[in-house]
């Protein structure tokens, strides 16, 4: 049988890795797919031929639209990233009857509903394993491996750059900007690194996970997003003293009132496996009602790990080329007509426990006043510690852990506390999750 001809859009970190893996492992991949897979055309504005293998059999152009218009190609791999022209290219490829493989989480999170509908109508596949957690096959695990379960919640470290920065800051006391630069040089960071450090990249990925976990349309705009830039070294230290680690997590959970979708720094018990996932590694913890908690760990970014997921998708598409569209795995795990419109909870309605840190005057009655504001708001304190005074002034950091509270209730209490003349600046808050089964 002739090899399947594939067009590749993008020859950067992931595109280059994909060409290299497909070339290097061609025989093994063909044994798995049942047919050879050949990248015959590629589009790239710039690329480094010295980093690519197999380029001699690829026709390279700088016009990506000419690739999606090429009638010889059955599959298009989109690795340009970003919203545009990726959206137009993918929709054009679908219109031309081509199957699409993409690693573009921004594209799927923002435009996935439109793309999947177009693909459904054309009877073509859109595969996006590499869009979430790089090399970890988490889409396949949730969509297929856990198909027997009601998924209860998912919590994941799904941005390698952010995890790398937090780990290096904690372990080596390195500066934020310095670690970010290294992540960029290693090809982990997004083109716009604020996507990593402000949580947007993780929110894209969480949006996708939430949809395939609960069978709801993609709703990126409703995902609460908070980055890691406000975390201070003292919070890392105090968290440690309470027996916790701070991780930047994406969390989605089904509750009686709706779906939580939130990305933010989170304190988790140090003894949890996921609390010990460091560097650029990702990990996703999925709780199913039948299986219990399951944990998936691996490289969440980088050339070869992401290429591993891209190529696996291409193999899947090749294996499925001859199946009827209705017998394929649905894009969002549930049959297209069976998606449900569950409410996404605003962050103010989410109930969690909190770590609070505030700088207060060191004199009698100050802690009692703060405790009374919390008590009036029905917020129970689980632990409280007054730290050493700052040198040269009479203020001290006061840190505490609360019991579970609905966020809007806490916001009200914090606003009152911040009004006290004995409290300086803003109250730092970090949500705490126990992540037990
Ligand atoms: N910038 C992303 C990360 C790349 O650091 O995880 C993988 O999506």
UniProtKB/TrEMBL annotation:
Transmembrane stretches, start-end: none
Broadest EC class assigned to this enzyme: oxidoreductase
Domain annotation ACT: ranges: 355-437
PROSITE patterns in the record: ACT (PS51671), HOMOSER_DHGENASE (PS01042)
GO molecular function annotation: homoserine dehydrogenase activity; NADP binding
Domain of life: Bacteria
EC numbers on record: 1.1.1.3
Binding site for L-homoserine: 190
UniProt-annotated catalytic positions: 205
Record's keyword terms, sorted: Amino-acid biosynthesis, Methionine biosynthesis, NADP, Oxidoreductase, Threonine biosynthesis
Pfam families linked to this entry: ACT (PF01842), Homoserine_dh (PF00742), NAD_binding_3 (PF03447)
Catalysed conversion reaction: L-homoserine + NAD(+) = L-aspartate 4-semialdehyde + NADH + H(+)
KW Transcription regulation (keyword) present: no
GO biological process entries: methionine biosynthetic process; threonine biosynthetic process
Name by which UniProt lists this protein: Homoserine dehydrogenase
Organism from which the protein derives: Candidatus Thiodiazotropha endolucinida
Lineage: Bacteria, Pseudomonadati, Pseudomonadota, Gammaproteobacteria, Chromatiales
Gene of this entry: hom
């Amino acid at each position: 049988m002739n090899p399947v001809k594939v067009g590749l859009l993008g020859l950067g970190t992931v595109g280059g890795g994909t060409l290299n893996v497909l070339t290097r492992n061609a025989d093994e991949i063909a044994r798995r797919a049942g047919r050879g897979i050949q990248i015959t055309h590629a589009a790239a504005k710039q690329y480094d031929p010295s980093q690519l293998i197999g380029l001699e059999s690829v026709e390279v152009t700088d016009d990506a639209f000419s690739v999606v218009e090429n009638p010889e190609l059955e599959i298009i791999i989109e690795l340009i990233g970003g919203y545009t022209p990726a959206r137009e290219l993918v929709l054009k490829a679908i219109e031309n009857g081509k199957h699409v493989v993409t690693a573009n989480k921004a594209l799927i999170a923002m435009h996935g509903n439109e793309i999947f509908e177009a693909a459904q109508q054309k009877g073509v596949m859109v595969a996006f394993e590499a869009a979430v957690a790089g090399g970890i096959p988490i889409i396949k695990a949730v969509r297929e491996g856990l198909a027997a379960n009601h998924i209860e919640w998912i919590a994941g470290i799904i941005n390698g750059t952010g995890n790398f920065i937090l780990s290096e800051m904690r372990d080596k006391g390195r500066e934020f900007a310095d670690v970010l630069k290294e992540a960029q040089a290693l090809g982990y960071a997004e083109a716009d690194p604020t996507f990593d450090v402000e949580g947007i990249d993780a929110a894209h990925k969480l949006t996708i996970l939430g949809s395939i976990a609960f069978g709801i349309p993609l709703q990126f705009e409703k995902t609460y997003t908070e980055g890691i830039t406000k975390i201070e070294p003292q919070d890392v230290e105090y968290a440690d003293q309470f027996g916790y680690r701070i991780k930047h997590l994406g969390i989605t959970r089904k509750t009686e009132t709706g779906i939580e979708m939130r990305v933010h720094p989170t304190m988790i018990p140090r003894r949890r496996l996921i609390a010990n996932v460091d560097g650029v590694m990702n990990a996703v913890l999925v709780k199913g009602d039948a299986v219990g908690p399951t944990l998936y760990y691996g490289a969440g970014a980088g050339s070869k790990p992401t290429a591993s997921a891209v190529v696996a998708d291409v193999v899947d598409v090749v294996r499925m080329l001859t199946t009827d569209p209705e017998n394929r795995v649905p894009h969002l795990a549930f049959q297209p007509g069976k998606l449900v419109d569950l409410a996404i909870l605003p962050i103010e309605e989410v109930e969690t426990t909190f770590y609070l840190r505030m700088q207060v005057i060191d004199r009698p009655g100050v802690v009692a006043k703060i405790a009374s504001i919390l008590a009036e708001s029905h917020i129970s304190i689980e632990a409280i510690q007054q730290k050493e005074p700052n040198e040269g002034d009479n203020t001290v950091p006061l840190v505490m852990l609360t019991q579970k509270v609905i966020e809007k209730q806490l916001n009200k209490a914090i606003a009152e506390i911040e009004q006290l003349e004995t409290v300086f600046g803003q109250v730092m808050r970090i949500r705490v999750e126990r992540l037990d089964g």
